[in-house]
Amino acid sequence: xxxxxxxxxxxxxxxxxxxxxxxxxxxxxxxxxxxxxxxxxxxxxxxxxxxxxxxxxxxxxxxxxxxxxxxxxxxxxxxxxxxxxxxxxxxxxxxxxxxxxxxxxxxxxxxxxxxxxxxxxxxxxxxxxxxxxxxxxxxxxxxxxxxxxxxxxxxxxxxxxxxxxxxxxxxxxxxxxxxxxxxxxxxxxxxxxxxxxxxxxxxxxxxxxxxxxxxxxxxxxxxxxxxxxxxxxxxxxxxxxxxxxxxxxxxxxxxxxxxxxxxxxxxxxxxxxxxxxxxxxxxxxxxxxxxxxxxxxxxxxxxxxxxxxxxxxxxxxxxxxxxxxxxxxxxxxxxxxxxxxxxxxxxxxxxxxxxxxxxxxxxxxxxxxxxxx
Length: 373
Ligand SMILES: *Cc1c(COP(=O)(O)O)cnc(C)c1O
Hints:
Layout lengths: L2 H9 L39 H14 L3 E5 L2 H10 L6 E5 L5 H13 L2 E5 L4 H7 L4 E7 L11 H10 L3 E5 L4 H4 L9 E5 L13 E5 L4 H13 L5 H12 L1 H19 L5 E5 L9 H7 L6 E6 L3 H10 L4 E2 L9 E4 H5 L9 E5 L5 H12 L2
Parallel strand pairs: 2-3, 2-4, 4-5, 5-6, 10-11
Antiparallel strand pairs: 1-7, 6-7, 8-9, 9-12, 11-12
Helix pairs in contact: 1-2, 1-9, 2-9, 3-4, 10-14
Pyridoxal-5'-phosphate binds next to helix 3.
Organism: Spirosoma agri
Family: Belongs to the trans-sulfuration enzymes family.
GO molecular function, one term: transaminase activity
């Protein structure tokens, strides 16, 4: 089945009791027992389980081709719960270029709790190998990376993890299953911030973990999900399920526009460098062809000059909204180093663009007028 058909099938089942084509939102926090004290549908209480959340979780598993999906109240809650399933003394290997919240969780929450971690440039496979120790339990990849759009070889990195008895987790937020299915490259867990492309309209916060197999580790995380309760509300689950129905068309349209924007910026006299997997000069071209169906709608651009020039350029834009986050239908732009704070290693002249559904010609005209001096 093609992805678009799968996405519809996974999120659309008419309600068997009423025939409602759009499934209802089960707001109830509690579920009644019958005369003999049994739970007719197996639901007890919404923290451990809820029908609307369960529908989303099944859809997430189907989209990625995994055995089990779990929904969380944010991407960070998903990452947090995965790390909570480890034990003090365990070690994590993490990409050097990753969403800044992931290393922040490890440093500020889990390091004091007893986890150790090593950050490594995942393009350097020898460095990945050297970073993996006997107590490494998790190798955490993010590809394309944030904000440099570098590509990790998932097949090799997951093999290195497995050789050491560790699991390979892939943060697939930027690619989405439309562009890349990490289980096809032997990853064990896929993580998403559903806040981004999966919901797609910048109006819901959510996260997900999807497991290739229903292992003991997956069951431990299921336990933590219900026990610690970082779960999304039924309404938020319903919004993410609705977003998934249009994921394929949105990503494809946004990718076509992003390619045009990247080509316009690449080679413009006011631009130092463009980072986009769809450009022929991307250093990881071979890997992109092997691993991704299309280059996606995220790109970064380094403007000639430093932070001041980049911020002056931002100020002149009329169609792009100056805001963090990504994956919505409206185009966003941000000065990434400001968002990441004083410890950021991101170049000061770098701007990150999330391309939405506006017409490419209008976006390019806006960028052109802001670059003109
Ligand atoms: C946004 C994001 C996260 C964190 O997700 P939240 O929903 O904001 O908690 C993690 N990874 C990536 C790649 C992201 O873009």
